[in-house]
Amino acid sequence: MAAEGGGKEMNEIKTQFTTREGLYKLLSHSEYSRPNRVPFNSQGSNPVRVSFVNVNDQSGNGDRLCFNVGRELYFYIYKGVRKAADLSKPIDKRIYKGTQPTCHDFNHLTATAESVSLLVGFSAGQVQLIDPIKKETSKLFNEERLIDKSRVTCVKWVPGSESLFLVAHSSGNMYLYNVEHTCGTTAPHYQLLKQGESFAVHTCKSKSTRNPLLKWTVGEGALNEFAFSPDGKFLACVSQDGFLRVFNFDSVELHGTMKSYFGGLLCVCWSPDGKYIVTGGEDDLVTVWSFLDCRVIARGHGHKSWVSVVAFDPYTTSVEESDPMEFSGSDEDFQDLHFGRDRANSTQSRLSKRNSTDSRPVSVTYRFGSVGQDTQLCLWDLTEDILFPHQPLSRARTHTNVMNATSPPAGSGGTNPGSNGNSITTPGNSVPPPLPRSNSLPHSAVSNAGSKSSVMDGAIASGVSKFATLSLHDRKERHHEKDHKRNHSMGHISSKSSDKLNLVTKTKTDPAKTLGTPLCPRMEDVPLLEPLICKKIAHERLTVLIFLEDCIVTACQEGFICTWARPGKVGLLSSQNQANSPSGTVV
């Protein structure tokens, strides 16, 4: 890792970093781990994962934290930036024999101070439903491994549902379960419900209703992660065959696909407004894909090894309704205008105004982050000069740390995921305010001629009658996506891939034939983002990145869960820490 300035500095672990919104600081006293604080020997173990839930506790300590380390699972009160972690008093601790927890997810809809529903997936294929507050184990699914014998890679509650959950396996299959139903004493029999390119969906054929309700077979190789769209209507899946596939979840229709530059895709996330999807994987890149246009709009290169987690930061994603052309004042004033003001619960509604009929220009900057096996944290800004490259640039600001962009004029198009409109975002119909190019390398204009219009067919909206009986349309407001789960955890790859991990053998998905197509544009055909910051923050590979309102949470394979206070959110805890900690922290 040696580079200019000396290799030693490059290998130092950073405890703070600065972005334009201010200083982020590691709170050493807010570190969570196993009670003995001994680094975990992670050789051969499944990745450490973290899940959060808020139980609306009247005391103000409503956040609860769950994490797995090896064969162990811990459940703590999470005190964040407010108080130091007390590792001597976990609410619940479980040690498993013969299998290891691989992933987990809370039901945010049903969580109370007295009870929470936590799903835990395991390396041998089972899924357990537990209540770590009541210390109860209510149900075990796929207990006899009759449904699937492979490792569980991702488990999530269906947004807005108290009983439905989705489980992905390294076999490449996904299963829809209902907690109220049993799994039966024999292997399930299936009948085909729907089939498409590289996917098939089956229903469970039995006299009485049993689990699984549905079986999805997606792509080739392991299905590494999936994520529901913010409105819960769409499902993004990433697989070891290097493909992102986006489905309409209710109608079981394929909406669009994307292929990695090479190797498998390991992680996926949605922007707060559901317009963009970011993936990461074995090509060391982050890739931004437009849901509306079904095409790659940017790639980001900053990691030196596989990207294990990507996540949007809804608290720093900023939306400005004022006309940036009318702004006058210092760059500091401009930064204050853009950042630290919006809350995540208002970000989505503010983003939706870009599609409204209001004639006032709206500028948006999306913030997302990534962590990887190179032990580095990268933060990225996605601005509208990248989102809409056809708009002419004029009077670009020279301050490289300030980003500002504008959306196309209201009424020029745009549909929300799940809508039935035939319009799509059509940037470039008017001369925009100044657009900076501060986080992108020079790139050629992206041709839009070959991309498909993202028009939702009437058939997709109508749904499938058999599947509609599952009452997925009755979902309530979606819960905030908290955790991101991947399954690949080994090794470092060079810039040249042997493509051995591309398990696709079909002609249509031959990597040599997808490169240079809309499925997988060449590197020179799309903007290449540079990270705002790229910092080494751990000794072992990073497996967790979660954005909370007052902090960022990361975790590494040694089993240490770290809290990074956002600018201005350090509070009293930081003062206490500084009094007790040695000087000379690395900046």
- The strand order across the widest sheet is 11-12-13-16-15-14
Q: Helix count?
A: 8
- Unreliable runs: 1-7, 322-343, 356-360, 392-508, 572-587
What is the first-to-last residue Cα distance? Answer: 18 Å
Entry keywords:
587 residues; mainly beta; 8 helices; 33 strands; disordered C terminus; WD40_repeat_dom_sf; WD40_rpt
Description:
- This protein is mostly beta strands.
- It contains eight helices and 33 strands.
- The strands form seven sheets. The protein has a six-stranded antiparallel β-sheet with strand order 11-12-13-16-15-14, with no helix packed on it. The chain has a five-stranded antiparallel β-sheet with strand order 1-2-33-32-31, with no helix packed on it.
- The longest helix has 10 residues, at 571-580.
- The protein is globular, with a radius of gyration of 23 Å.
- The chain starts with 6 loop residues before the first helix and ends in a 7-residue tail after the last helix.
- Residues 1-7, 322-343, 356-360, 392-508 and 572-587 have low confidence and may be disordered.
In short:
The protein has 587 residues and is mostly beta strands.
Please describe the topology of this protein.
Blueprint: H1 7-11, E1 16-19, E2 22-26, E3 50-54, E4 63-69, E5 72-77, E6 92-95, E7 101-106, E8 118-122, E9 127-131, E10 136-141, E11 152-157, E12 164-169, E13 173-178, E14 189-196, E15 199-205, E16 214-218, E17 223-228, E18 234-239, E19 243-248, E20 253-259, E21 265-270, E22 276-281, E23 285-290, E24 295-301, E25 307-312, E26 318-320, H2 331-338, H3 344-352, E27 363-372, E28 376-383, H4 384-387, H5 458-462, H6 465-468, H7 511-514, E29 528-529, E30 533-536, E31 542-547, E32 551-556, E33 561-565, H8 571-580
Parallel strand pairs: 24-29
Antiparallel strand pairs: 1-2, 2-33, 3-4, 4-5, 5-6, 7-8, 8-9, 9-10, 11-12, 12-13, 13-16, 14-15, 15-16, 17-18, 18-19, 19-20, 21-22, 22-23, 23-24, 25-27, 26-27, 27-28, 28-30, 31-32, 32-33
